[in-house]
Amino acid sequence: MKILIADDHALFRQGLLYTLQSLGDDVEVMEANNAAEVLDYVEGHTDLDLVLMDLDMPGIDGYSGLLKLRENHPELPVVIVTASEYEADMLRIIESGASGYIPKSLSSSEMLDALKQILDGEIFVPDLSSTSGTFQIRQITGSGPLLASLDKNEAAAEIRSRLTPRQLDVLRLMCEGMSNKIIAHNLGMAEGTVKIHVTAILKELNTTNRTQAVIMAKETGFISA
Fold first, then answer.
1. Which pLDDT score is estimated for 128?
2. What's the whole-model pTM score?
3. Taking a C-beta distance cutoff of 8 angstroms, is the pair 165, 172 a contact?
4. Could you give the CA distance from residue 154 to residue 220 in angstroms, rounded to a whole number?
5. Which one is the CATH code of 147-219: 1.10.287.110, 1.10.10.10, 3.40.50.12280, 3.40.50.9100?
6. How buried is 67 (Cβ within 10 angstroms: 0-12 exposed, 13-18 middle, 19+ buried)?
7. How far apart are CA 62 and CA 36, in angstroms?
């Protein structure tokens, strides 16, 4: 298995290389300093199995590199490994066709688990509800009024104020019992993007699972609002 890692920090590349060796004895790792080197390397090597690329690099950034790779080599899985923990960056990357978004703050074991999921054909995004709170998503939960203390109209309005328009679309389809895969098909987005939205919805509504979120939406009258 051949994996190409691109990061302008040699120390991080070495640490990532060490982690990748845990995937098996047959892992061969190549290194690049920037996205331009990645694009050149990929053109001459059609046997790559995975590209791991930083988001913020000199010259061509990781996002631009991702777009070029998706355009020219759509069959090649590309994963962004980055220090950025902003939800907006994560959504943009997944919606652009990346196979995963791995924060550099993850431990080696967590990163290894993420890579195994990706190599199994899944799309990996970090679980915002189980992080230490470093992800920069809108922290409205807890600062606004408790939904249970409001009447139905007020509660429905509060839910609408807490969620983005896209998250509201996802919540409505969740309330219809749709899975992430079906929601993705209906809204024309990647399943990984739906997963990000669902996790953000749970956090904003201060619920621990999608069933609780659906019950809250129905009990507050959000669906009929």
1. 53
2. 0.62
3. no
4. 8
5. 1.10.10.10
6. middle
7. 9
